[in-house]
């Protein structure tokens, strides 16, 4: 029995497809697997942000301006409680600096309840409901604190994740299409077409990326709706993103277009478009997937940078970049460090995508 199992495993290894081998290698990369779990959680929260947010991103609590994060507790003077709770805040004013001081009112615990009724919303703009994942019966719950207008930062970070995470995927998708199409045409046909496309790529890559993004973003009409600005920023971020992928696709096609299987496809009578899409591009699809994964963080950082500078997503829309606009003042960050929480989401997302890309690259490498 002991000898048959290794033999069966070895046989399955040599008969496995390329994707099965990639999956086996990828599962051994623990950091990449953990990153996949983190990204899945972030995207799940982004898709259902209305449900998981205790309030709408515009809900204000005027008595809690710059309120610090509330601590979730299980133990009070009476002992341990199975249901978590937070203490209500009492507010006072410092007579010297006139700063608002918030202290916990130990006599006023507020149990955290799940699936509570709160602000009404439309899930995905379709289903009208007022059920939220968690909340308290009276007063606000501010697990990440509040901003200068008294808005809950948990809700605003969850809503912001939908914009920041989706703009990365959509922007990379557009870059992927442009890179594959233009790179495929350039590498397969060559000649004047190749020369023209390569000169365009060289021109675009010679321009500093951030100033180009800023110039194009500033050109967007100020009266555009948040939806138009969202897609405008997505297209702007995709202007440069396709150049690197197009060059890689071109190099691969220059290498593969003289192979025997391409000649056989031509003799059979397949059109050139089918040869590129069905035979040439799939031959290095693993590299394309890795390139896509590693490109998403750049798109997210681009949107965050533009929104932080006031040239990206505009209010009332919320993204991680717009949330960081409140932390541009060093004094504000020192006094209210919880305004810097969106940076944690950005860093975790970028690191997770990079680790997933590293895991995919190692798994797709035939020499490892």
Overview of this structure, please?
The protein is an alpha+beta fold. Helices cover 58% and strands 14% of the residues. The chain contains 14 helices and five strands. The strands form two sheets. Strands 1-2-3 form a three-stranded antiparallel beta sheet, with no helix packed on it. A two-stranded antiparallel ribbon has the order 4-5. The chain is elongated, with a radius of gyration of 26 Å.
Keywords for this structure?
368 residues, alpha+beta, three-stranded antiparallel beta sheet, two-stranded antiparallel sheet, 14 helices, 5 strands, elongated
**Sheet of most strands:** 3 strands, antiparallel
Total beta-strand segments? 5
Question: How much of the residues is beta strand, in percent?
Answer: 5-15%
Gross geometry: elongated
Summarize the structure.
By secondary structure, the chain is of the alpha+beta class.
Per-chain topology:
Elements: H1 4-15, H2 18-27, H3 30-47, H4 49-52, E1 73-76, E2 79-93, E3 100-111, E4 113-123, E5 127-135, H5 153-189, H6 191-206, H7 209-218, H8 226-256, H9 260-268, H10 272-280, H11 285-308, H12 320-323, H13 330-335, H14 341-364
Antiparallel strand pairs: 1-2, 2-3, 4-5
Helix pairs in contact: 2-14, 3-5, 3-14, 5-6, 5-8, 5-11, 6-8, 7-8, 8-11, 9-10, 11-14
